[in-house]
Amino acid sequence: MNDLCADIGYKSINHVGEELCGDHVDVVEENDNSTVIVLADGLGSGVKASILSTLTAKIISTMMAAGLPIEECVSTIAATLPVCSVRGVAYSTFTIMHLLNNDTVEIIQYDNPHVIAIRNYEVYDYPKTEMNIGGKKIYKSVIKLQEDDVFVAMSDGCPHAGIGGRYNFGWKREEIAAFMQALVAGGYTAKNLSTMLVDECDKLYGHKPGDDTTACVVKIRRREPMNILFGPPSNRDDSSRMMSLFFSKEGKHIICGGTTSSIAAKYLGKPVKATLSFERSDVPPIAEIEGVDLVTEGVITMNKVIEFAKDYLDKNELYEHWNFKKDGASRIARLLFEEATDINFYVGRAINPAHQNPDLPINFNIKMNLVEELTTALKKMGKRIKVSYF
Q: Does the pLDDT at position 289 exceed 80?
């Protein structure tokens, strides 16, 4: 078994004037190392297109995750979904990326723009086999995965961007590939890569998209452990055990909270060096302890990280607010969202007397809820999470 994993991210924008997106992305995990990703583009736009693309993506991803062959998946869709009575054309086009044991990717494409593959920071022209299933021309590719491989799937809203505006015939696939090639070199996450591509399409449309536009990016990377310590233990006698377990773990170490950092500093025999410069007004300053990668304040900083996490999973409009900033919340966000794949939380259940002030909206339950909210968001990002309470 290799130590590769897949970072998966996607973003969509709706056709101007439509409440629903006619594209749909579905991600189904077969197990820890095998995943089915389907990007479906429904005919037209609005409610009808949304229903068609959602059904297509759900049927394909569920059937493929169950191990059924692509021929059966396509014939099932053909028998299940309607054909346009006016145009007599397909209900929905689709792209499938089937990751097998994080070792191989099987790409199956029907009428969507072909997946862009970037390997060693160069656009990679992968082999395709043409198949005919139920009268439909389908392309299949099987690619052995390498670290840092990036695959970009998209709906036809991407190459249609700019038609009649900046480009006479839209944004050509080769130009999109060159645009993505430059971004991949920046080391961005799959979510941020998909966001940047869709945001660029939105600009080319003059912020009035003439088609539903979706990008789904899969980035292959090595597993990266991370450890975060939040709050002192309820029993002081457990401090040494908690610190011993925390510091013995492989990977970077983040400590959140003033009391927690004092306990860690005492355990390491190193002083806490506070910094008094505010990088942003709504996040307290960070501190430094030799042997610790990042030391921050606790509840306020963690609350900001959760705000970033929720947005990251949704429209990802705040990524510029944390991607380049040096405050504690932004640095935690980069470490957890971008670097980490396996995150160990060490959470102390001690009640902070400072939080018992009735004038403050902070109590023990809120602190535990912060951990629950953050771990839930990180799991949705595809992270492996383990939480230990003390």
A: yes
